[in-house]
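Hi R.,

As promised on Friday, here is the backbone we talked about, encoded as C-alpha cells. Could you run it through your design pipeline when you get a chance and send me back a sequence?
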C-alpha cells in the first residue's frame, strides 16, 4: 500500500478533511497491526477511508455534473442509491451509475465504483441478522487498498482523461 498519498494524481482534488481521513486510515494500518490486543472486527480501520471515498465520489460527481450542487451540499443525496445498478429505473429514474456508464462508454468504471462502495462501505458498516460482516486486519488493509485503487481509476477516467 502506498503510504505517501500526496503523490496521487487526485490528492489535490480532495478537500483537506478528506485527505486527513485517508491519512488517519494509514496511521491506523501502521499501528493497529502491531497491537498485542486482537479484535473480532477491524472495520474501524477502513471507516475513515470509506468516509473519504464518499466525499471523493460526491465531489467527482459534482465536477462531472452527474449531480447538482443541491445534491452535493444537501442532506438527502445517497451514494448507495445513486450508484446501485439494481434499482428500478421506472421508480427511481436514471441514476449516477447510468451517467458514469454513458460518460465512460462502458460499465467497467461504474461497476468498480459500485463494488467498492458496496464492499468497503455498505456491507462493512451495516449490521443484519445472520450477516455479521466482521473482517480481519489483513482484509481491512485489502479494502483500504481497493478504495485507493478505485479512486485512482475514477480520477484517471473522469478527470484526467477529459482535462
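Update: got your reply. Pasting your designed sequence below so it's all in one thread:
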Amino acid at each position: 500500500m502506498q503510504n505517501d498519498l500526496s503523490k496521487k494524481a487526485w490528492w489535490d482534488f480532495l478537500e483537506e478533511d478528506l485527505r486527513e481521513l485517508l491519512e488517519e486510515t494509514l496511521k491506523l494500518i501502521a499501528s493497529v497491526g502491531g497491537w498485542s490486543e486482537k479484535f473480532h472486527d477491524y472495520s474501524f480501520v477502513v471507516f475513515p477511508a470509506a468516509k473519504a471515498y464518499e466525499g471523493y465520489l460526491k465531489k467527482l460527481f459534482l465536477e462531472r455534473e452527474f449531480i447538482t450542487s443541491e445534491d452535493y451540499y444537501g442532506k438527502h443525496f445517497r451514494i448507495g442509491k445513486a450508484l446501485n445498478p439494481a434499482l428500478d429505473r421506472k421508480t427511481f429514474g436514471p441514476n449516477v451509475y447510468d451517467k458514469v456508464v454513458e460518460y465512460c462508454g462502458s460499465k467497467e468504471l461504474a461497476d468498480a465504483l459500485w463494488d467498492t462502495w458496496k464492499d468497503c462501505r455498505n456491507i462493512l458498516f451495516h449490521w443484519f441478522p445472520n450477516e455479521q460482516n466482521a473482517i480481519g486486519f489483513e482484509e481491512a488493509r485489502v479494502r483500504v487498498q481497493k478504495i485507493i485503487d478505485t479512486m485512482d481509476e475514477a480520477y484517471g477516467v473522469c478527470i484526467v482523461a477529459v482535462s
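One thing I noticed while checking it: The longest helix spans residues 137-158.

Thanks again,
M.
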